[in-house]
Design brief:
Blueprint (H helix, E strand, L loop, with lengths): L1 H17 L4 E4 L14 H9 L4 E8 L5 E3 L17 H5 L12 H9 L5 E6 L5 H17 L6 E5 L2 H10 L5 E3 L6 H6 L4 E5 H6 L2 H8 L3 E5 L4 H10 L3 E4 L2 H7 L4
Parallel strand pairs: 1-2, 1-9, 2-4, 4-5, 5-6, 6-7, 7-8, 8-9
Antiparallel strand pairs: 2-3
The chain binds magnesium ion (MG).
Magnesium ion binds next to strand 2.
Length: about 260
C-alpha cells in the first residue's frame, strides 16, 4: 500500500510539472483593450483587470535626466526624441487614448495600487553607457521610493544596463533581451535568464532546456499568433510576452 501511494505521489508530481504553463506578460501593458494605449496608465490598469502575471513598460532617461514611459525613441508624427527632449515636452504628447505620456513616477504610483500584477520594466538602450548607468540608478531609486523593488523584474537589450542593475539590485531578476548570448553566458553574468524574440528562440529551441538546467528562466516576445503561442507553450518557456494577453490566457486554460 505504501509503495502504491508513493507511486501515486510521483505520478502526480510528474503530471504537475508537465502541466506547468507559462505566465502571461502584457507587452507595453494591455493596450489592445478599449480606451487604452501602449505604455499608458490605462494599459497597466487593464492588464491588472484581466489578471495577467505581469505588465511590461519601456523607460527612457530624458535630456533633463527624468524618467518617462514610452516605447519609440521618436514619437510617431513628431520630432520629439525621448533622449534629447525634456520631460515637459515629452509629457505634453497625447496618446491614442487621450492620456499624456506618463512619467515613471506617475506610473509607479499606479502600480502600487494594483498589488496583484508584477511590473516588467524595460530600460531602453541609451546613446552612451554613462547615461545608462545614471538611468539605472534613477530607476532603482524610484522603485525603492514606491516600495516596488520586489514586485519588479528588469529587462534590457543593453548588457551594460543589465550589469548596472545587477550591481544595484543583486537579488532582483534581470533578463537580457538581445538574443545573442547562450544560457551558459547569461548564467556566468549572474542574470536571471533570457528574454528573447520569437526568431532567436525558434533558431535555438535547445536554449530553453539549457537555461532550465542552469536554473535560469526563459521569456519570449512578442508572441501574438496562436501558432507561436502553442509552439512556446509546448517548448516549456516560463513566460510569454504578448499584445493579446486574453487570447493567451484562454489558450493556456486560465479562463
Ligand atoms: Mg519593451
Amino acid at each position: 500500500m505504501k509503495k502504491l501511494s508513493l507511486l501515486f505521489i510521483l505520478l502526480a508530481a510528474g503530471a504537475g510539472s508537465a502541466l506547468a504553463q507559462p505566465k502571461v506578460i502584457a507587452h507595453r501593458g494591455y493596450w489592445k483593450a478599449p480606451n487604452s494605449a501602449q505604455n499608458s496608465l490605462a494599459s497597466f490598469f487593464k492588464a491588472d483587470s484581466i489578471g495577467v502575471f505581469a505588465s511590461e513598460i519601456d523607460v527612457w532617461l530624458t535630456a533633463d535626466d527624468r524618467l518617462i514611459v514610452n516605447h519609440d525613441r521618436v514619437f510617431k508624427g513628431t520630432d520629439i526624441n525621448m533622449e534629447r527632449s525634456t520631460q515637459r515636452d515629452i509629457c505634453n504628447i497625447v496618446l491614442a487614448n487621450g492620456e499624456n505620456i506618463p512619467t515613471l513616477d506617475a506610473y509607479l504610483k499606479l502600480v502600487t495600487t494594483k498589488p496583484d500584477t508584477r511590473l516588467v520594466l524595460e530600460m531602453k538602450s541609451l546613446s552612451d553607457l554613462s547615461r545608462e548607468d545614471l538611468a539605472a540608478e534613477k530607476i532603482v531609486k524610484a522603485l525603492r521610493k514606491y516600495g516596488l523593488v520586489e514586485r519588479t523584474d528588469i529587462i534590457a537589450f543593453s548588457l551594460n544596463a543589465c550589469l548596472a542593475f545587477k550591481k544595484l539590485l543583486p537579488d532582483s531578476k534581470i533578463y537580457y533581451l538581445d538574443g545573442d548570448l547562450t544560457p551558459k553566458k547569461i548564467k556566468k553574468l549572474g542574470l536571471a535568464g533570457i528574454d528573447y524574440s520569437i526568431e532567436a528562440l525558434r533558431k535555438h529551441p535547445e536554449w530553453v532546456e539549457q537555461a532550465h538546467k542552469l536554473g535560469l528562466e526563459v521569456n519570449v516576445w512578442t508572441v501574438d499568433k496562436e501558432e507561436d503561442m502553442r509552439y512556446f507553450i509546448d517548448l516549456g518557456v516560463d513566460y510569454i510576452t504578448t499584445n493579446y494577453p486574453e487570447q493567451l490566457q484562454q489558450l493556456i486554460g486560465e479562463k
